[in-house]
Amino acid sequence: MTMPVGATAHRIRRPWDEVHRVLRPGGQLRFYEHDIDPDPRAARVQRAIDGVHPYVGGGCHVTRDTERAIEDAGFVIGQIRRFRFAPELLSKQAAPKILGVATRSRVTACDEARTPARVTAATAL
Hints:
Elements (H helix, E strand, L loop, with lengths): L12 H10 L5 E7 L5 H10 L3 H4 L9 H7 L2 E10 L11 E9 L4 H6 L6 H4 L1
Antiparallel strand pairs: 1-3, 2-3
């Protein structure tokens, strides 16, 4: 389960790559994150705010395409719910939220690169 982690990471894909690395193939990632607004006008406002927001919002970038970053890290999103939640005026720029479940792909090129070429019977278990 993750809650707003991608927004404060220096590189958005890094936390999702790390979760993908440690989660077993077929394992599930359950996430609750904020995402860039699907409305182009609201996204423009987010982009304007994002120049300052990380300095006043705990390092949070409001323009991150979190859904895409999760998919790019090798997850398949099976369920996703999009909604707006801004309990206070100052959180309005981060109101677009996504809540969902993604499954780690079975085998990826990254997995193959990390797998030792020689596998013994003891390590294959």
